[in-house]
């Protein structure tokens, strides 16, 4: 990507110790891999992509050394093509649908080719902006859904103003994606790309605290809620509160951004949970050199919600699973007088034999560090400040699936807050879809206003 970030990062962060999961291709590697694509007429990889990127076309352009054209093809369907190339679970999306797979051969490496095209050919100058409309949209949160929505709106000629509560923009791409997949600097470079398209970002502004939802509706013609989910759910057992026990997203944020966060002295770590975040964190700890990393999951290995390919990679990294286990207590060292809780020493577990809760036994494992990855709290409470916006029984914002419109015709939503927590590429698709619906709503409003003006002029 041509644009760079305006947000300098401190040196000495744990993130810097991770090797790139899939390094950038050389020119020869990219050409050779692009030549493997069969440019299928009815390419099944395209509908497998939630943003429907024209994959055979962008790959063909790599093969003909038209890298700017290749990046343009990607960006026309997905404004966050750079980060999606790095974080998408391609094994179950585009590459999983590649025609090579049923033949027992490796799929075309679509993700790595997409990264190559975006890094070598991506530039804001590739995209044309429509004439300024004079209409504005406020977007809450600066994660992938909001950025994709804001970028699309900017290209359609509207002012797009993003409000982010954190000092750094990018949402989970900045703070929550495994560092070996997408480092912060690359996320911030992509944010710079969106700003070059005309998106304005105000950091350090929390809706509900610094700015009321009603004020946002007064300032803007429409609002998009892309604030994601809330904080990590906590472990509700004795000893869970105190040093050495931390939520997964908070831990990832520290690894990526805080140079004071260290892994020194940690030999035995436990990660509680069985989803993709739990597996990511376990892999990170193993890759950082923690000697024993255990994943503690309440059900069987088969029932883990994490992707199979991620769990297999974690096992290769040395992570060990304790299935059918529930943490009963975090036993801590005796604290020094007046010093609060001591460090974690061991976890007491209830392990169901053969998966039967009625047939469980007690166990204990030694730990120095515990990471809790059991989910996140649902939609932020500030949504109550937007009349007509409501949440369902699972805590997700209620939206029309075709437009992302909430119960308030001027308020739209997408990303984790509305879908409960899916992939980055789903958030991008939902943000772009909402942008098109907002654009249609604004254009319809403009036509109604123009019709009203003509009627008044006729009556004068
Ligand atoms: Fe190329 Fe595979 Fe897509 Fe066919 S399915 S167009 S071979 S990437």
Mean pLDDT across the residues is 93
- First-residue to last-residue Cα separation: 55 Å
**What's the tally of helices?**
14
Strand tally is 13
State the domain count.
3
Shape: globular
Helix content: 25-40%
Supply the helix-strand structural class.
alpha/beta
CATH architecture of the largest domain: 3-Layer(bba) Sandwich
Give me the CATH fold name of the largest domain: FAD/NAD(P)-binding domain
User: What is the topology, as strand order, of the major beta sheet?
Assistant: 3-2-1-4-13
CATH class of the largest domain: Alpha Beta
The hetero compounds bound to this protein are: iron/sulfur cluster
Instruction: State the fourth-level CATH superfamily of the largest domain.
Output: FAD/NAD(P)-binding domain
- The run of helices and strands is HHHHHEHEHHEHEEHEHEHEEEEEEHH
Stretches with pLDDT under 50, minimum 5 residues: none
Largest sheet: 5 strands, parallel
């Amino acid at each position: 990507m041509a644009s760079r970030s305006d947000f300098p990062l401190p040196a000495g962060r744990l993130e810097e110790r991770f090797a790139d999961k899939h390094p950038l291709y050389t020119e020869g590697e990219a050409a050779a891999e692009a030549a493997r694509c069969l440019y299928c007429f009815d390419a099944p990889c395209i509908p497998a992509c939630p943003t429907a990127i024209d994959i055979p076309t962008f790959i063909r352009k790599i093969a003909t050394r038209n890298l700017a054209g290749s990046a343009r093809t990607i960006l026309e369907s997905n404004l966050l093509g750079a980060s999606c190339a790095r974080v998408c679970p391609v094994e179950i999306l585009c590459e999983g649908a590649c025609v090579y797979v049923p033949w027992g051969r490796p799929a075309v490496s679509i993700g790595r080719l997409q990264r190559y095209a975006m890094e070598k050919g991506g530039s804001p100058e590739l995209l044309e902006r429509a004439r300024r409309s004079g209409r504005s949209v406020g977007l809450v949160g600066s994660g992938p859904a909001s950025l994709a929505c804001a970028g699309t709106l900017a290209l359609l000629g509207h002012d797009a103003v993003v409000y982010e509560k954190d000092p750094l923009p990018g949402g989970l791409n900045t703070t929550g994606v495994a560092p070996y997949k997408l480092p912060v600097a690359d996320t911030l470079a992509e944010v710079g790309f969106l700003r070059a398209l005309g998106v304005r970002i105000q950091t350090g502004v929390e809706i509900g605290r610094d700015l009321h939802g009603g004020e946002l509706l007064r300032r803007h013609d429409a609002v998009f809620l892309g604030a994601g989910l809330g904080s990590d759910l906590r472990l509700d057992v004795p000893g869970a509160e105190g040093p050495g026990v931390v939520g997964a997203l908070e831990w990832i944020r520290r690894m990526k951004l805080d140079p004071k966060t260290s892994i020194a002295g940690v030999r035995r770590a436990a990660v509680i949970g069985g989803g993709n975040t739990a597996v990511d964190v376990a892999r990170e700890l193993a890759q950082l050199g923690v000697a024993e990393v255990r994943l503690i999951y309440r059900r069987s290995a088969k029932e883990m919600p994490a992707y199979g390919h991620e769990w297999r990679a974690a096992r290769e990294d040395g992570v060990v699973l304790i299935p059918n286990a529930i943490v009963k207590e975090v036993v801590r060292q005796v604290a020094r007088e007046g010093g609060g809780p001591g460090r974690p020493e061991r976890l007491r577990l209830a392990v169901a034999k053969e998966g039967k809760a009625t047939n469980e036994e007690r166990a204990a494992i030694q730990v120095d560090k515990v990471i809790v990855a059991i989910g996140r709290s649902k939609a932020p409470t500030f949504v109550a400040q937007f009349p007509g916006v409501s949440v369902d029984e699972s805590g997700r914002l209620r939206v029309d699936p075709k437009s992302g419109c909430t119960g308030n015709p001027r308020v739209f939503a997408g990303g984790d807050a509305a879908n409960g927590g899916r992939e980055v590429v789903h958030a991008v698709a939902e943000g772009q879809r909402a942008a098109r619906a907002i654009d249609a709503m604004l254009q319809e409003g403009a036509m109604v206003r123009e019709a009203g003006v003509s009627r008044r002029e006729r009556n004068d």
